[in-house]
Amino acid sequence: MPTTLPVPIAFRLPEGWLPAHPEGMDPGVAFAAVHPQPDAGFTANITIDGGFPLDEVTLDVIADKSAERLRQVAESVVVSRRREVGPDDALALTQRLTFTAVTGDTRRDLVQTQVYLTMTDIEDPHKRAVIRLALTATAAQHDDILGDFQDFVRTVRPDSGEAA
Q: At 47, which CATH number?
């Protein structure tokens, strides 16, 4: 059963990507989508999750904790790139993790690009939510589909529930 996000968002999936079945998702994930063409038996995926961190917790700390959680289930996790982007009132952080994990019965070299977006809670503007968007793919396929993920990230926005 998927979790809910701390703030409602709207987004558009890249062409060809399909929503994943909720019963196969990690319980901490609010939404997942899969790429239509697996690479060597691994299906690239986009996941969305988030929460309300304490005010003093920085995006760097949140990203560090994410990498640490990945180290509990994968091998040789390396943060290969990290940078903050955007203005202070809409700060975001991107990081790229490389790692080895066993999926099915196969050990795979994987890459995960994560984007952390800060958003204001609609009900309480003093609360800051952080939404994490992640693309996970094989090392061989990652760079070929990274553009899809970047296009997806550009469509993510707060959703007030009102029709556009």
A: 3.40.1000.10
